[in-house]
Amino acid sequence: MAVPAAVELVDLALKATTAYERPDLGGRLLQTRKRLVDPDVRVLIVGEFKQGKSQLVNALVNAPVCPVDDDIATAVPTVVKYAETTVAELVREGESEDSAERTAVPATQLAQHVSEAGNPGNKALLSYAEVGLPRKLLSGGLVLVDTPGVGGLGSAHGAATMSALPGADAVLLVSDAAQEYTGPELEFLNAAMKLCPNVACVLTKTDLYPHWRRIEELDRGHLRKAGINAEIFPVSSVLRLHAAKEQDSELMDESGFKSLVDYLLHKVVAQSDDLDRRSTSHDVLSIADQLSSGMKAELSILEDPEKVNGLVEDLTRAKARADELKQRSSRWQITLNDGVADLQSDIGYDLRDRLRTIGREAEQLIDDSDPAEVWEQFSDWFHQQISSAASANFVWAAERARWLAAQVAEHFAEGADISMPELRFDDEGIAGKVDPLTQPEAEKLTRGGQLLTGMKGGYGGMLMFGMLGTLAGLPIFAGAPAGVLLGIKAVRDEKKRMLQKRRADAKNGVRKHIDEVTFQVGKDSNDMLRRTQRQLRDHFSALAEEMSTSIAASVQAAQNALKTNTSGREKRIKDLKAELARIDGMAQRARALVNDKRPTALSGGAA
């Protein structure tokens, strides 16, 4: 739910920009208002395969929105958000947000499109499915995203999910109570802590495993040892759904969902609400400062005309600095362009270097074994290594992008005389997934094939040595032992040839998979950097334009003040002070916005 005071304040500021003929200042406010009235708070539900992610979402909203079964895996992200009536849509994204193709489907048929059984490998090429539900829990802007679990966190798709973390407001790692945290889960949590402001863990299926408290204790120990500060919420989705059906409050408490819902509402949603307040306050204060600058300059000259020369000189110098900020040769522009180019080169090199190392290790493992015999273990190891490398590369890219944004802001501020509003990056959703490593066809030598190969080799050997023996007066069958030996050698050579072919095919599969990962993960990182570049460029270019216009208006107002006659001067001074008082009142409301924080008025156990 949008903060009413913030929306009212933005509307007031928009009216002020119109009244004082500064439509150029309204663009930022319109973006602020759009964000306030569409306050999606995205929570990613992630985890290994078959850990209860979809059932957790169903239990949170008390509706069977995500398909759940022993043999069903989620293949397409499912976004669950608030709507007045129950609706479901399939979304295929185009080149822009406006060109996305949306297809309405009955909510009861969603499993046919988002599950691995109904849409294997996402052959329908869906970007995500969106479900709207009339639930109080979701009415505050909470959006739950059930991510695909095919292959788990150690898969290539798990690495692709990492790209959604910077745009998420929170991440819930789902793991059932059957066993303690695995290496991939701890690695994912460690990376998520660097990219997302809120990370928590959910221990599911406590109704199935009586020893879940021991697992919870072990998990907390793993988190402490890894230096991960994340809460753990043990829950039972089955108990939650049954309690909601029977309206049993004791069973609801036993399910453990009250603490989880309280966390989502009073920390995740409330934190997003605070960020909206701070951002709105910054924007309105900046607008108020620029609206009042010209009036203050004019008032200063009217009250003391002798200040005109010094004031105009100061304003002229300030305008020159503001105009310089708009030039492509300005320091912040150079820092941004050079920084993005350097990052693209460094991040691309880092990814290729990591994957080349994995490729060399994979080929060595293939040379030391028979791929047909160890493929399952090899594939698990390989996917884990690829996932770790891709995740580490993306985390590093995101951290470097944030560092670059701070550098650009610092260099822009060196030439600016205004307070810097907060920069907020747009969310782009989950990146495209990478298909798993495919097992090459294993050509094996059957018993019949061995016999036939041995006979061919033995027949030729026996015939050759037998003919030589006849020259020495021996019977032709004297070459039989040599034929047997050559037959055995032929079988061994054929087995060796087939093994070499299996190894070569496996290596080719590894190289193709690494090429695909390099392409997809590299594209995701470059897309993230380009979005960062565009948003930084547009943000600071707009600020520079606003500053230049405001200062030019101040210079003009100061010069016009000298032309005011004595009779009109007092009236103009009175009018200016009244207008400045109105603008100051708007600024005071903006400052009060960040100090007037009220808790979210939603019940923790509401569905």
TrEMBL record:
SUPFAM superfamilies the UniProt entry points to: P-loop containing nucleoside triphosphate hydrolases
UniProt KW Transmembrane keyword: yes
Keyword Membrane annotated: yes
Membrane spanning stretches: 462-488
Keywords of this entry: Membrane, Transmembrane, Transmembrane helix
Ranges of residues in domain Dynamin N-terminal: 43-203
Gene3D superfamilies: P-loop containing nucleotide triphosphate hydrolases
Superkingdom of origin organism: Bacteria
PANTHER family attached to this UniProt entry: SARCALUMENIN (PTHR43681:SF1), TRANSMEMBRANE GTPASE FZO (PTHR43681)
Protein name according to UniProt: Dynamin family protein
Native source organism of the sequence: Pseudonocardia adelaidensis
